[in-house]
Write a structure and sequence with these properties.
By secondary structure, the chain is of the alpha+beta class. About 30% of the residues lie in helices and about 25% in strands. It is built from 19 helices and 30 strands.
């Protein structure tokens, strides 16, 4: 039987309607914005990781050509600090006490890149030159640059706290876990490093501030992942004004990955400067700014043990996690390890768990959500540990997973840490991935590679993530006088293709060409509320709301047409921008119907879907690698993905999301690593030293879905934006470990760079 690809709605392989403008260079990013009399700002940043300071002289800088304003802490002392919204509960029953980021430091800097002053001039070059003339007297202080140092007898980042330990969280049942370990037939253990990452999106951050005196109102234009949350925090917590006094606008965004979801100092600085100068002020980072001012990702140390019975069934899991917060408590920073903790059991039926997570301050850039936000860390830990369990018990890696998977009959399944998995067939996607990757024939390929002097390895990882968290995302649709349909919604595309995905649901309901649908996001004046984009929530929540709003509008349009054509509503059908009486040539186009509406409400509709539980996409990744023994270079030769996303909205968009996510996971596994030296200097502070994956680093991905619709979501959608990143790193590293085990390498941490691999092989040979 031939399966027809739908033209509209769910499942349609529609090409991205956004891309025409982007390909022609007609995108509209923040740094493209200009205004009459526009001025430019530069942030003066600390070269020290920990120091007290005084600004000795500003006169030379103020007298420099083009300089219009220099702001220091005294000029913004009335502003609030950037808030931390993740006051997590601690093991002792208290709440996490944050160390919030000041807009400008008063007399102490705590990481390289910390902000001392904001210089505004007629050009960015003039502002940069003037910033170099600001005289600052620093008194360097002892530095704690990593978790290991923070855990030891190091200096303290915040001396009044007396310790770098910011707090300890605990989840699970320690007594039950201890009992299971005491009774275990065997145990497996592992210790891992989750390397720190820099989120290198294509478009660096930029902000443009304006003050409109006639309205007594600010306007901030900036790249973000949602304008409403930014408006609320910036207005209420920092500027201390009613949010109605601040309009936030986001146009095109060149990548976000979590890091553009946050409130940053420059958002406030351009607004303050614009009001004082009576002129618009723009700040745009250079890549050096980005490396030392935008939040970093991951960075933790973790050890774990698994208890097993005689058959190799998992009976208990114990985890000890140490997480780096950086110098300040970022917006969601303390919450990210908790996200990981809550997903620690993966797809496995583990009845007892004991998880401890210690949070530490260090003299480094703050750490916060980066694509996956805790779930990649959890998947990496459990999947590396499960491979070790297979080694300890003598079982195959696939067999021990199948033995311990949660079975379909157990669903819905409540994990020991409270996650509620609704649907899935975990052994099904594992089997499909094994078949597609030709897992059974791998040993022959290993021998063939060995004959050519190469080490070949294969690894797999299963994963589950929580996304589309409880909440809603209202959608607003309107039939415009031109006959076009306008959709407004409070999510924010960062490159995912929202304008295409949402338009599919509008087109389905109104039987309208995609090119006649305009999707508007990113303006607090347009929509009253919005949850923004993050946690793969936009399509599972937003698309359902868009569909409901579009269906309501379709009924209103039919009613208008019935009145104009003097027919029954049930006899009206919509097609190609017109309404007509079924079986006749009598029709009226949408523009005429818009003009015929007696009120605006006759051509408007709102839809809102509220979800009470997260969704849980899951899947299997299989990676095959070859390693050159002489150089340590790891070459990815095959990569297979079988995912369960519940329902596929658009295969083209989905493929892009998965490919990009896998690339980021592979980047972490093999090459990306943010490194600080003992003095707190970021030695990987540019693309000269921080490696980024390129297209040539990857094989063609074999990607397939094996969907089981969600019962949590009204359309069965589970979400897909972060999944590729979550499954990739453990699959790659399990493959690398498999390749290296025959030459005696027992363990290797990310990133498995050529040097690290080469050193590990040589150490194993020497040992």
């Amino acid at each position: 039987m031939t399966v027809m690809t739908p033209k509209f709605g769910l499942g349609a392989s529609v090409l991205r309607k956004e891309d025409d403008a982007f390909i022609r260079g007609a995108g509209r990013y923040t740094d493209d914005e200009t205004r009459p009399g526009l001025l430019h700002g530069v942030v003066l940043r600390s070269p020290h990781a920990n120091a007290s300071f005084t600004i000795a002289d500003l006169e030379a800088a103020r007298a420099a050509p083009g300089v219009r304003l220099i702001l220091t802490h005294a000029d913004v002392a009335d502003l609030g600090n950037l808030p931390c919204g993740a006051l997590v509960g601690l093991a002792d029953g208290s709440r996490f006490t944050p160390q919030n980021t000041p807009v400008l430091c008063r007399d102490h800097v705590r990481h390289v890149g910390d902000a001392l002053a904001f210089v505004v001039a007629e050009t960015a070059v003039q502002a940069r030159d003037a910033a170099e003339l600001v005289e600052v007297d620093y008194t360097p202080l002892p530095v704690v640059a990593d978790i290991a140092a923070a855990m030891g007898d190091a200096a303290t980042v915040w001396s009044d706290r007396g310790t770098n330990l910011a707090g300890t969280m605990h989840e699970g049942d320690k007594a039950r876990t201890d009992e299971a370990f005491a009774a275990a037939a065997s145990t497996a253990s592992i210790r891992l490093v989750q390397n720190r990452l820099v989120c290198n999106y294509m478009e660096v951050r930029s902000s443009l501030g304006e003050f409109l005196p006639d309205e007594d109102r600010y306007v901030l234009t900036t790249g973000s992942q949602g304008v409403h949350g930014l408006q609320k925090m910036l207005a209420g917590d920092v500027m201390k004004i009613d949010k109605s006094k601040l309009r936030v606008v986001t146009r095109d965004v060149g990548g976000g990955f979590g890091t553009k979801a946050f409130l940053y100092r420059e958002h406030a600085l351009v607004l303050v400067a614009a009001k004082r100068l009576g002129a618009p002020v723009k700040w745009t980072a250079d890549r050096s700014d980005h490396f030392v001012s935008d939040t970093h990702g991951r960075d933790n140390l973790v050890s774990a043990q698994m208890a097993m019975d005689e058959a190799g069934r998992f009976t208990a899991l114990r985890i000890d996690l140490h997480a780096n917060l950086g110098a300040y408590s970022s917006q969601y920073g303390p919450m990210i390890p908790w996200f990981g903790m809550s997903m620690a059991t993966g797809l496995y039926d583990i009845q007892a768990i004991d998880v401890t997570c210690a949070l530490y301050f260090t003299n480094t850039v703050p750490v916060d959500a980066y694509r996956g936000a805790g779930r990649p860390e959890a998947a990496y830990l459990i999947e590396r540990l499960v491979d070790e369990c297979a080694r300890v018990t003598g079982q195959s890696r696939e067999a021990i997973r199948k033995l311990n998977f949660i079975k379909p009959a157990q669903l819905p399944y409540r994990t020991p840490l409270g996650r509620l998995y609704d649907t899935g067939e975990f052994e099904g996607h594992l089997n499909e991935a094994l078949r597609r990757s030709e897992w059974a024939g791998f040993e022959a390929r290993r021998e063939a590679a060995r004959a050519e002097g190469k080490l070949r390895g294969i690894g797999l990882a299963t994963y589950v993530e929580a996304c589309a968290f409880p909440g809603s995302e209202p959608a607003y649709v309107e039939l415009m006088p031109s006959g076009r349909i306008e959709l407004k919604i409070g999510t924010q595309s960062n490159g995912q293709g929202h304008a295409t995905a949402y338009a599919q649901f509008v087109a389905e309901a109104l039987r309208l060409d995609y090119d006649l649908i305009d999707v508007r996001q990113g303006d607090t004046d347009d929509t009253p509320t919005g949850g923004g984009t993050g946690g793969s929530r936009s399509i599972p929540l937003g698309a359902v709301s868009v569909r409901r709003a579009s269906q309501t509008l379709a009924e209103k349009v039919k009613k208008l047409a019935a009145e104009e054509l003097e027919a029954a509503v049930g006899d009206i059908e919509l097609e190609d921008g017109s309404a007509r009486i079924v079986g006749t040539d009598r029709s009226i186009d949408f523009a005429a119907l818009a003009r015929a509406a007696k009120s605006d409400e006759d051509r408007r509709a709102v839809g809102e879907f509220k979800q009470d539980e997260a969704t849980y996409p899951n899947g299997t990744h299989v990676c095959e690698v070859e390693i050159d023994e002489d150089t340590g270079v790891v070459d990815l030769v095959r990569y297979t993905i079988v995912d369960d996303f519940g329902v596929t909205v658009n295969p083209v968009l989905l493929g892009g999301q998965i490919h990009g996510g896998v690339a980021q996971g592979i980047g972490q596994a093999l090459i990306e690593n943010a490194v600080y030296d003992g003095e707190g200097q970021l030695v990987t502070a540019s693309f000269m030293d921080y490696a980024m994956p390129r297209a040539g680093d990857f094989p063609f991905f074999d990607f397939k879905t094996r969907n089981v619709p969600s019962t949590t979501n009204a359309l069965g959608i589970k979400g897909a934006g972060e999944a590729g990143t979550i499954g990739a790193a453990p699959a790659v590293m399990n493959a690398v470990a498999d390749a290296l085990r025959p030459v005696g390498v027992a363990h290797i941490d990310m990133p498995a760079t050529p040097l690290r691999v080469w050193e590990a092989m040589n150490a194993a040979r020497a040992g």
